[in-house]
Amino acid sequence: MDGNLANIVLHATHLAGEEYADITVHDVLITLQSLTDEEIMDHADPMTYDSGKYANYFVSAVRQMDYDQVVEKMYELKSLGELEDGYEDFFSIPGA
Length: 96
What we know:
Order of helices and strands: HEHHHHEE
Distance between the termini: 28 Å
Strand order of the largest sheet: 1-3-2
Number of strands: 3
Largest sheet: 3 strands, antiparallel
């Protein structure tokens, strides 16, 4: 599930990046909270789990993410090359 959480944070980062040049953790957190359950479920990976139970659990986990958890995921994404910067709480999308 850790990878799925990183994927949904990356998705929210891209959505926030459409509105803002510099993306803050707060922008991503607000974007995550504004996603519908269906949008969140689209980023779940039910291939290895009971899809109904897992989808509900995944939505719940995303809804419960706090600032520190989003920061952690964004730094993981930075280390993977999916995000740049990371100064204080500002990030950017490579090539954007």
